[in-house]
Structure formats: structure tokens, C-alpha cells
UniProtKB/TrEMBL annotation:
Keywords: NAD, Oxidoreductase. This is D-2-hydroxyacid dehydrogenase. The keyword Protease does not apply. It comes from the Bacteria.
């Protein structure tokens, strides 16, 4: 069996993998080669290097392992037509992303951005507007692996958590649940609104002008899912009209932001350049998910961890 990685793990991660599966011929390259793709039985990729044209070279590939959570940049229809199984690393981002979100929330609540600016000016001032996180309410759009981990951390700080998903069904570390249909009624309760929703037809532009109008004027809005959640002009208007107190954005409709983009300079906006999931342990955790699935695959089993339904987008 030939397994083709379109990225090269560090030697301390690559060498144990090769030793653990001596029956597998591993190919590691930084980038995608159609010649290697033609020979591969299994493809391991971040997903962004595949397109409709080169998927046609993958004539032997039966399983694609995506070392990422999103698939919107993959040639999904071509993969579906070929009947290729796809699994991903769902849940791998929960620790770094939850820690990033909590860091931003605490920084805003305890006025850290203001303090940093005062330090730059060599100015001693005690006029910081500091508030407490305890007894706040957080509304979490998408209480899956990442959203539930955020909920766990926030509950430890005495925060009431409300989860919101399509069905309104229960989710871990949520004190209450609402469905998408009930979202507009739940928003006025929230001091913090966090989205970690994937990009699907249903979640695209889910938040509209009326949703921001119902939020508290001092609410912290955080988008760490996909930029398609809200139209950019709607978000900018909400910020400029003081319909929300703060926006923390890790994702955007168009990435990267252009140098003259208004979000760079709008007050009460923190731009995180889609890095909240970054961690020195990313590939390590990816391989921890990949190895058990590979063991199953070698036994002829196809019930792999984190199987994806490409037709639904996740």
C-alpha cells in the first residue's frame, strides 16, 4: 500500500509512523505531484492543494485523510463522484482555539489592549474600563468539539453557556440549548456571542442585520468559524453603529485582508489572521487521529474516525 503525504511531518513524528507501519510505503512531499498521485492508494493532505483537475490523477485513491477540519476548498463533487472516502481531524483544534478565544475574552474584560497602548505611550493611568467575566452569559453557535471545549472553560469562570445549533439538541457544557430558529430570541441574553460554525448552505449569512440589532450594545462578538457567517458590510455597519461592543475576528469573507481594509482600523476590533488553531502540536495531534484509522484501513475496515459527509459540507 502506498500512502502519499502532500506535506512532510517533522522527523520525530515521521520516523515513528514509518516504523509502526512497515507494510506501508510512505511518500512525503511538500506539495502535490500528479505523478505521485497516480500511484497513491491513500492521500494525506491539508486539502487546499487538491482541485478538480488533479483529482482525476488519483485513480487508485480510495481514502483521503484531511489534516484540517474544513473542506470548502476541496473538489468535493469530483471526490463524491469517485466514491472516495474522506475523513478529517475534527476536534483537533479544540484546545488551541478554545484557549485563543478565552485569551481574547479575558484580555477585553481586563482591558489588556488598553494597558498595552498606555505602555507604548509611557503613560501611567488607572482609567482602564475593566469588567468581570464571572456571571456573564455566552451564546455559542456550533457547540461541537470546539464549542463545547469553549463552554467547559467558560463555565469554570462562572459563565452561563447557551448553545445554538440546527436542532437545538443537547450539547456538552451547555446550560441551555436553542435552535437556529430561536437564535434571535436568545441573542439579547448574551454578553458574549461566539461562532465556530462550519460553512454550509444553512450557515452562510446566517447572521443578518436584525441579529446584530438585538445584541447587547456592549456584547463581544467573536467569529472563529467561517467568514461566510455574516456579510462583511453587515458586520462593519454593526460595529460602526455601536450595535456591539467588540468584535474579535479570526475568519473573514475574503482572506487575507487587503492592506487598506477598514477592519484593520475600526475601533473595538481585533483582527486575528486565521491563526487561532495554530499550535506546535498540530501535526502530532493529526497523526494521533490518523494512526487508528490506518490500522482499521489495513484490516479492511471502513468505519474510520471522523468520517465526512461531503454533500453536507462536514
Amino acid at each position: 500500500m502506498r500512502i502519499y503525504f502532500t506535506f512532510e511531518p517533522r522527523p520525530d513524528l515521521r520516523e515513528p509512523l514509518v516504523a509502526e507501519f512497515p507494510q506501508v510505503d510512505f511518500i512525503f512531499e511538500n506539495g502535490l505531484s500528479n505523478d505521485e498521485l497516480q500511484q497513491a492508494d491513500v492521500l494525506v493532505t491539508y486539502g487546499e492543494d487538491l482541485n478538480d483537475e488533479n483529482i482525476q490523477y488519483a485513480t487508485k485513491v480510495k481514502w483521503i485523510f484531511v489534516a484540517s477540519a474544513g473542506i470548502e476548498k476541496m473538489p468535493t463533487q469530483a471526490i463524491i463522484e469517485r466514491g472516495i472516502l474522506v475523513s478529517n481531524v475534527r476536534g483537533i483544534h479544540k484546545t488551541p482555539m478554545a484557549e485563543s478565544m478565552l485569551a481574547h475574552i479575558l484580555a477585553i474584560k481586563r482591558a489588556l489592549p488598553w494597558m498595552y497602548e498606555q505602555q507604548k505611550k509611557n503613560e501611567w493611568s488607572k482609567k482602564a474600563k475593566q469588567t468581570e467575566l464571572r456571571d456573564s452569559t455566552a451564546l455559542i453557535l456550533g457547540p461541537g468539539a470546539i464549542g463545547s471545549e469553549v463552554g467547559r472553560l467558560l463555565q469554570a469562570f462562572g459563565v452561563v453557556t447557551i448553545g445554538c445549533n440546527r436542532s437545538g439538541d443537547e450539547a456538552a457544557y451547555m446550560n441551555d440549548m436553542v435552535s437556529f430558529d430561536q437564535l434571535i430570541e436568545a441573542l439579547p441574553k448574551a454578553d458574549i456571542v461566539i461562532s465556530v460554525l462550519p460553512k454550509t448552505e444553512e450557515t452562510t449569512h446566517l447572521l443578518k442585520e436584525e441579529h446584530f440589532k438585538t445584541m447587547k450594545n456592549d456584547a463581544i462578538f467573536m467569529n472563529f468559524g467561517r467568514g461566510s457567517l455574516v456579510e462583511e458590510n453587515v458586520l462593519i455597519h454593526a460595529i460602526q453603529a455601536d450595535e456591539i461592543g467588540y468584535a474579535v475576528l479570526d475568519v473573514f469573507e475574503q482572506e487575507p485582508l487587503t492592506e487598506n481594509h477598514p477592519l484593520w482600523t475600526l475601533p473595538n476590533v481585533i483582527v486575528s489572521p486565521h491563526i487561532s488553531s495554530h499550535s506546535s502540536r498540530y501535526v502530532e495531534r493529526s497523526l494521533e487521529i490518523f494512526k487508528p484509522s490506518l490500522e482499521k484501513w489495513l484490516r479492511g475496515e471502513t468505519d474510520l474516525e471522523n468520517m465526512m459527509d461531503l454533500s453536507r459540507g462536514y
